Amino acid sequence: xxxxxxxxxxxxxxxxxxxxxxxxxxxxxxxxxxxxxxxxxxxxxxxxxxxxxxxxxxxxxxxxxxxxxxxxxxxxxxxxxxxxxxxxxxxxxxxxxxxxxxxxxxxxxxxxxxxxxxxxxxxxxxxxxxxxxxxxxxxxxxxxxxxxxxxxxxxxxxxxxxxxxxxxxxxxxxxxxxxxxxxxxxxxxxxxxxxxxxxxxxxxxxxxxxxxxxxxxxxxxxxxxxxxxxxxxxxxxxxxxxxxxxxxxxxxxxxxxxxxxxxxxxxxxxxxxxxxxxxxxxxxxxxxxxxxxxxxxxxxxxxxxxxxxxxxxxxxxxxxxxxxxxxxxxxxxxxxxxxxxxxxxxx
Amino acid sequence: xxxxxxxxxxxxxxxxxxxxxxxxxxxxxxxxxxxxxxxxxxxxxxxxxxxxxxxxxxxxxxxxxxxxxxxxxxxxxxxxxxx
Lengths: 347, 83
Hints:
The complex is a heterodimer of chains A (about 350) and B (about 80). By secondary structure, chain A is α+β, with helices and mostly antiparallel strands. Among the domains of chain A are: about 1-110 and about 330-345, Rossmann fold, CATH 3.40.50.20; about 140-200, Dna Ligase, domain 1 (2-Layer Sandwich). Chain A has 13 helices and 15 strands. A six-stranded antiparallel β-sheet of chain A has the order 13-12-9-10-11-14. In chain A, helix 1 (about 20-25) crosses helix 12 (about 295-305). The two termini of chain A are about 20 Å apart. Chain B has one domain. Chain B has three helices and three strands; from the N terminus they run βββααα. Chain B has helices at about 30-40, 45-55, 60-75; strands at about 10, 15, 25. Chain B has a three-stranded antiparallel β-sheet, with no helix packed on it. In chain B, a hairpin with a 4-residue loop joins strand 1 and strand 2 (about 15). The N and C termini of chain B lie close together (about 10 Å). Classes of the chains: A alpha+beta (about 350), B mainly alpha (about 80). At the A-B interface, strand 10 and strand 11 of A face loops of B.
C-alpha cells in the first residue's frame, strides 16, 4: 500500500532521535510503499541528509513556540504534500500531537499515540501512583518544585539519589549540594518539576513494545545496553531472553490498554526483582534492533494507525546485537542553503 | 550442579547468557570444566578428568575448582541447587 508518512526526531547524533530507525523499519516493510516526509527542527539534523531515508524534509517550529504556530505549519505542509500519517518521536512534542489528534484526524492525518490519560499517568512525576495502580515495583520518588524543597530529600531517602528532569536528563547525587547543582542544571534546561528517585542497584534493562489500544501486546523485545555514552544513551545493546520482562510488559499493556509505541526502562536487581524506573510513551531510538530481531514495530504501528488488523509478534531472535557508529556524511552547501532559505528540501 | 539450560557455549569457549546478555571467554581449562559440569559430572569426577590431562596437585586443583564454581554461581550461570 502507498502511504505518505511524516516522521520527526531526525537528529541522528550521539543522542539520537528515533526518526531514522523508524524510517528504516518502514523502508524494509514488504507491505508499505512509503513516501517519507521528514519534519526537522534544525537545519543540521543529520537524518535530513542521509541517503535513501527521507524523500522530502520540511522545517517546523519547536512545539515551545506555541501549539497554534506548530499546527499551522503542519497544515501548511499537508496542503502542499498531503500526509496520511504522522509518527512523532520526541517526548517534548507528544503532548501537542495528542491534543491535536481530533484536528489532525479531520484533516485526514492519522496518528497512533497513547491517550492523554495514559500519557499523564505514566509520567515520571506520577510513577509512584502508577506503580500502586498497576502492581508494578517502582523506586520511591518525590517531586521538587522549588530549590527550598531540596531539604525535604533527607526525610525520605538515603543518599545516593537520582535527580531527573521532567522529559530528559538523569544524574546521580551523593549529597544535597550535588542535588542543588543538578537541580539548577536540569531546571534551566527542561523546567520544573525535578524528580528525586531512589537509587536502585542493579542492571538496567529495557523493553521496546507496541500496544494496540485494546490491551494486546503486538510486539515486545527486551534488551540490555552493552555500552552507554556519557549522555546515558545506548551505543550498543543485545536482545535478551527474559520471560519476566515480557510478562511485565504484557500485563502493563493489558491493564493500561496502551496505544502506540513505548519503551520500558527497568532495573533488574541481584535478587531478580524488576523495578520500573521510566516509561517512555514512544518508540525508542534503538527500535531497529527489534526490527532486526524479527519484530518490525514501525511497520506494525503504521498498519495499526491506518486501521489494519495486525497479528501479534510472538518471537524474536535472542542475542541480536547493535553497535552504533558515526560516519561523516558529505553534502554540498546548496542543500543546506535550500533548507535554510526555503524551509524544505527534496532529496 | 548444573549449567543453566539456556546458556550457550560455543566450540571456541565463548559463553553467552541470553537472560542477562552477558558473555564470557573461557580458556581451555574453563571450557573443559564447563563441559564436564554440563555432562553432569560431580566435583570429584571433574578432578579426576582434569588430573589426567594436566599435571597438577589435587589440593591446588580442588581450590581452583571451588573458586571457579563459586564464580559461575556468582555470575548466575548455574541452576539453583535444590535442598
